[in-house]
Write a structure and sequence with these properties.
The chain is α+β, with helices and mostly antiparallel strands. Helix content is 26%, strand content 32%. The protein has a seven-stranded mixed sheet, with helices on both faces. Strands 11-10-9-8-12 form a five-stranded antiparallel sheet, with no helix packed on it. The chain is globular and about 60 Å long. The chain binds biotin (BTN).
Length: 258
């Protein structure tokens, strides 16, 4: 396996904004921490932070993010959206990952609400957004994406049952560099579209496998069951409960009821 050095990435990277500035670390705690430090040092919008290995990678809800060295795409992107664009960032990221995987591998991933990317029922990619908002102004939003490219989930007990990778599904090693270049191009286009006011939410909604299903949603200590009826414009899930009421859920983990 090869590392993701900036020199190789810059070659043939056709983006306008995303990845014009690249901060690369063979090993770091978390690309989120590096990106946040770079925000403090006024790194330009679109700056990406890449690592081949994280010693303290993190996921949503304070979970750990597991990836053996040089097995995955571990990426953070520094953004400065307007407040009203913030909910669209996760949608644009999910769509970019789906399109990237389709283009590079021919696989057909789906999105599990809110933003897990699923192939053959298992998670191949997740992302999180850590933003700093002051009154009505977003000072920064750091988007972190972890995409399992060549990892073998069976070697990591914590994710062995729930995760997959492109290599596992395809049965052969995949070029991380090619996936990364395609992902950055797709996100570059979708982020631009979002900023132009284009209906990203509609595109995202069409890719959600969760809608129209009976689901269980866990959010912290709370658990709800019901019918995943729709999503609102901010991406919150509208859950029809057995008593007929409609619940709006901003964040959580969904499992399908069988
Ligand atoms: C999730 O599904 O819980 C989100 C996972 C996000 C993981 C990525 S890996 C690159 C970046 N650095 C981190 O520490 N986390 C994100």
């Amino acid at each position: 396996m090869t590392n993701l050095s900036p020199a190789s990435l810059r070659r043939e990277l056709r983006t306008k904004l995303i990845g014009q500035n690249i901060l690369y670390h063979p090993v770091t705690s978390s690309t989120m921490d590096v990106a946040k430090q770079a925000v403090k040092e006024e790194a330009e919008e679109g700056t990406i932070v890449l690592a081949d290995h994280q010693t303290a990678g993190r996921g949503r809800f304070g979970r750990s993010w597991w990836a053996p060295p040089e097995s995955s795409i571990l990426l953070s992107i520094i953004l400065r959206p307007k407040l009203e664009e913030l909910p669209g960032i996760g949608m644009a990221a999910s769509l970019a990952v789906v399109r990237c995987i389709e283009k590079t591998t021919g696989l057909k991933p789906v999105i599990k609400w809110p933003n897990d990317i699923i192939i053959e029922g298992k998670k191949v990619c997740g992302h999180l957004i850590e933003s700093e908002v002051d009154q009505e102004t977003v000072n920064s939003a750091v988007l972190g994406i972890g995409l399992n490219v060549n990892l073998d989930p069976s070697l990591i007990p914590e994710i062995a049952e729930t995760a997959t990778s492109l290599k596992e599904v395809l049965g052969e090693e995949v070029s991380r560099l090619e996936i990364l270049r395609t992902l950055l191009v797709e996100f570059d286009e979708l982020y631009h579209a979002l900023r132009q006011g284009e209906p990203i939410a509609k595109l995202w909604r069409h890719r959600l496998e969760t809608l129209g299903q009976q689901v269980t949603v866990k959010s912290g200590p709370q658990i709800w069951q019901g019918y995943a009826e729709s999503v609102d414009r901010d991406g919150s899930l509208l859950l029809r409960r057995p008593d007929g009421s409609l619940l709006t859920i901003a964040a959580g983990d969904v499992t399908l009821q069988v």
